[in-house]
Design a protein that fits this description.
By secondary structure, the chain is an alpha/beta fold. The protein folds into two domains: 89 residues, Immunoglobulin-like, CATH 2.60.40; 176 residues, von Willebrand factor, type A domain (Rossmann fold, 3-Layer(aba) Sandwich), CATH 3.40.50. It contains eight helices and 16 strands. A six-stranded mixed sheet has the order 9-8-7-10-11-12, sandwiched between helices. β7, α3 and β8 form a beta-alpha-beta unit. α5 packs parallel to α6. The longest helix is centred in the N-terminal third of the chain and has 35 residues. The protein is globular and about 50 Å long. The termini are close together.
Length: 352
């Protein structure tokens, strides 16, 4: 809204000028102190001592805590990062593999893995909930499941909430405050249609533009087929597959939906191509347990980095496949994004 934008700009201008004034004052003090220092004072060229144990190569290259205390990745500028879940033939998550177990293929060609990490890494997550008329009686249990997802996730996760019907609304920006999330989820105005694709794409762009954490996830809940977006399914998937795009975990509460097969297929495609999962509970009571399953999946992933043999500047879509093999393990399946568009820039749209 115009009023909010003007207030934001005024606040930003005031903060910037106050910071500049403080810096000038500090610089003057430093010059004065330097002028009073003995001219013969020697300059030390010694390096600061290192404390604590030396981190492993993967830990040193993959992670750090920034000045705000936020866990972020530090990666090579040309590195592609994959977040992968490994399961056995009974769909049990496997968490004890090392770097040598994995092979990454891009466009069918094996790639050199340059970083590897397996830990409970905090994520930037968007909770995107259908607020159309048909969701009115379902929102209470869906909201509770969304909050339980956050409770079961890493406490350092940063989460925003988008409610959507014909349009989409950012009702809570990034936070780890459960009360704020709860208040945003309770902004129920269940009416209108279902602009699922637009809401998911806009939420993905919000992650891309504003997330401080590298690992990105969208948790989407809907009860029907998209009937209000200007974008097609393929257009939405293409934007989600832009480089560093999010993994999408979707819950389709389809019930007696008029076109359940098409709605189910759309959610399956979005999830599969981004490295997430799609769930279709038979009853509303199953949604809560599914949300906890999603949390377990996210918290038990491997992060694999590689530098593509085909320069990213060449652009285009790159098909990605990851295989895992290890002694003593039966057939394993690796789930990650099916590919990405190299060198793509953020679109102009964003959350409202």
């Amino acid at each position: 809204m115009p009023g909010r934008d003007i207030t934001h700009r005024l606040s930003k201008w005031t903060s910037t000028n106050l910071l500049l004034f403080t810096f000038i004052l500090w610089a003057g003090v430093q010059v004065d102190v330097a002028a009073q220092a003995p001219a013969s004072a020697p300059q030390s060229d010694s390096k600061p001592a290192q404390s604590g144990g030396a981190p492993t190569q993967s830990q040193d290259s993959d992670q750090r805590i920034n000045d705000s205390g936020v866990f972020v990745f530090r990666k090579d500028v040309d590195e592609v990062l994959l977040h992968a879940t490994v399961v056995d033939d009974k769909q049990h998550i496997i968490t004890n593999l090392d770097r040598s177990a994995f092979t990454v293929f891009e466009d069918g060609k094996p790639q050199n893995i340059i970083s590897f990490h397996h830990a409970d890494i905090p994520v930037a997550m968007g909770i995107v909930i259908d607020n159309s008329g048909s969701m009115r009686e379902k929102r209470a249990k869906v909201n509770q499941a969304a909050l339980n997802l956050v409770r079961a996730s890493n406490p350092q996760d940063e989460v925003f909430v988008v409610n959507f019907n014909d349009e989409y609304y950012l009702d809570q920006d990034f936070t780890n405050d459960l009360l704020k999330m709860k208040e945003a989820l309770e902004k129920i105005d269940a009416k209108g249609g279902t602009a699922l694709y637009e809401a998911v794409v806009a939420s993905g762009e919000h992650l891309k533009r504003n997330a401080r954490l590298e690992k990105k996830v969208l948790f989407v809940v809907t009860d029907g087929e998209d009937n209000a977006s200007r974008e097609t399914l393929e257009q939405a998937v293409k934007q989600l597959q832009e480089e560093n795009g999010p993994s999408v975990y979707a819950i389709g509460i389809l019930g007696d939906e008029e076109h359940p097969k098409r709605a189910k297929r759309a959610l399956e495609i979005i999830a599969q191509r981004t490295g997430g999962l799609a769930f279709f509970p038979k009853t509303l009571d199953e949604v809560d347990e599914i949300s906890r399953t999603v949390a377990r999946d996210i918290r038990n992933q491997y992060t694999i980095g590689y530098k593509p043999t085909n320069p990213r500047g060449a652009g285009g879509f790159r098909a990605v496949r990851v295989e895992a093999k290890a002694k003593g393990q039966r057939k394993m399946t690796v789930r990650t994004k099916s590919g990405y568009y190299a060198g793509t820039q953020p679109a102009a749209s964003g959350t409202k």
